[in-house]
Amino acid sequence: MGMKRTFKTVNYDQALDLTVRLGDCLPPEHLARFVVDSVALLDLSALYARYGSRGGEPYAPEVVLGLLLYGYATGVFSSRKIERATYEAVPFRFIAGNLHPDHDTLATFRRTFLPELKELFGAASSCLHRKRAC
């Protein structure tokens, strides 16, 4: 008879109790980090100016814009898929800061700010192209 083989196993009860920092899950040069840093440099005053004083507390434009930019950069265009990714994919969860804008919020933001987004996407796109060329 052959040697007895041992296997690495997982204790799922113990694994579920682990505290995981989102920042530890992405390498320093990850595209999601670059998107967050790039969006922080954009002038979003035109977006903020269009928000009214009524209604519930909206998501900051940086969050929604970052999700849309990262989604477009990685081939995820559907608002429903972006929403799901904020739960299931670390880069989206990182950009959202562990928040979960629903698909209606994402779609409404895209529709409401379409003219501004075209300009902002152009500025962000040139940043992304420079990043990938580095």
Give structural attributes.
elongated; mainly alpha
Structure notes:
This protein has 134 residues and is mostly helical. It has one domain. Helices cover 63% and strands 0% of the residues. The protein has helices spanning 12-16, 22-25, 31-41, 45-49, 61-73, 79-88, 90-95, 103-112, 114-133. α3 crosses α5 (61-73).
Radius of gyration: 19 Å
Uncertain segments:
none
What is the strand content?
under 5%
Instruction: Report helical residue fraction.
Output: 55-70%
Task: Tell me how many strands there are.
Answer: 0
> What profile does the largest beta sheet have?
none
Distance between the termini: 56 Å
Q: Can you tell me the overall shape?
A: elongated
Name the structural class.
mainly alpha
- Average pLDDT number: 90
Into how many domains do the coordinates divide?
A: 1
Order of helices and strands: HHHHHHHHH
In brief, what are we looking at here?
With 134 residues, the chain is mainly α.
List the helices and strands and how they pair.
Elements: H1 12-16, H2 22-25, H3 31-41, H4 45-49, H5 61-73, H6 79-88, H7 90-95, H8 103-112, H9 114-133
Helix pairs in contact: 3-5, 3-9, 5-8, 6-8
